[in-house]
Amino acid sequence: MAAAAASPAASGAASGWGVERFLADGFDLRRQLAAYLQISEAELTGRLPSSTADLAALHPGAFDLSRADQFYEETVGTGHLLELAAWHLGSADYIADTLRLQERFACGHLLDFGGGIGSHALAAAALPQVDAVWFVDLNPHNRAFVEARAAARGLAHKLRCFRDLGDPALPSRFDTLVCLDVLEHLPDPAERLAVFADRMAPEAIALLNWYFFQGFKGEYPFHLDDPLQIERFFLTLQERFLEVFHPFLITTRAYRLKVGP
Q1: Alpha-carbon gap, residue 36 to 149, rounded angstroms
Q2: What is the CATH number of domain 15-257?
Q3: What percentage of the chain exceeds 90 in pLDDT?
Q4: So where are the chain's domains?
Q5: What global pTM score does this model have?
Q6: Region class of 102: left (phi > 0), else alpha (psi between -120 and 50), else beta
Q7: DSSP secondary structure letters along the chain
């Protein structure tokens, strides 16, 4: 398989976007985000610890998954950047392993669906075995920030940003697909899996994770937890995909398209 042939050693380290650089400073995340938001790094650092609670406070009562697109595209504003930054900086060891996993399989045309602040898209764009990165995210602030980060490090020629998969400028098929910490935020994750399967090249690899749980104390109000929807998700996963082993002890899994019955 073409994707599996990519060597972990062929990383973005030489261009400054390797795993060790991420562990050092999140790819210069604090400085770049403070500049984008036009605040000081000290103010940014002070706002990060409350970013998740601040995001949750943007909607009163129960989160309406049927309006998730509107919430993430219009309501969250730059607050989503803060929450994502806090997660990436506070969970650097976990994210580093997902970057190592991406290095293992990434090649050709790579789709980063719901790519957030762009850690995986930027790292992928620095990989020599990746021809182009197609970053898709509803939030216009996320897209603008990732474009600015890519331009600042000379990666703009390999990374393009889009609102959704319906854009005709996107390739019809992808060689690698990355969708991390997104599926649990969708009203119909099974439908999204089917779309992914239809957009994957025959030997493509998809890197996916999910967390269909709103928390023991409701700390994840944005997550889908409908049992019927979750069952449909796993039935679709079993019908369309076959898991590919990887050695990293993380929740993210690798899949290829299932062939035959």
Answers
A1: 9
A2: 3.40.50.150
A3: 77
A4: 15-257
A5: 0.91
A6: alpha
A7: -TGGGS-TTS-SGGGT-SHHHHHHHTTTHHHHHHHHHTS-HHHHHHHGGGHHHHHHTTS-SS--GGGHHHIIIIISTTHHHHHHHHHHHHTHHHHHHHHHHHHHH--EEEEEET-TT-HHHHHHHT-TTEEEEEEE-S-HHHHHHHHHHHHHTT-GGGEEEES-TT-TTS-S-EEEEEE-S-GGGSS-HHHHHHHHHHHEEEEEEEEE-------TTS--TTS---HHHHHHHHHHHHHHEEEE-----SS-EEEEE----
Instruction: For residues 226-249, give the mean pLDDT.
Output: 97
Q: What is the mean pLDDT of the chain?
A: 90
Averaged pLDDT, 235-257: 98
Residue with tokens 């602040």: 117
Length of the chain: 261
Q: Check pLDDT > 60 for residue 9.
A: no
pLDDT category at 148 given cuts 50, 70, 90 is very high
Q: Is 159:150 a contact under the CB 8 Å cutoff?
A: yes
What are 78-94's pLDDT values in tens digits?
A: 998 999 999 999 999 99
Letter for the amino acid at 253?
Answer: R
Distance, CA of 144 to chain centre: 15
What are the φ and ψ backbone dihedral angles of 253, each rounded to 5 degrees? -120, 155
Distance CA 235, CA 128 (A): 36
Instruction: Give the per-residue pLDDT at 261.
Output: 67
pLDDT of residue 4: 43
Mean pLDDT of 252-257: 98
Copy the structure tokens of residue 204: 């493509």
The answer to whether the beta carbons of residues 158 and 197 sit under 8 Å apart is no
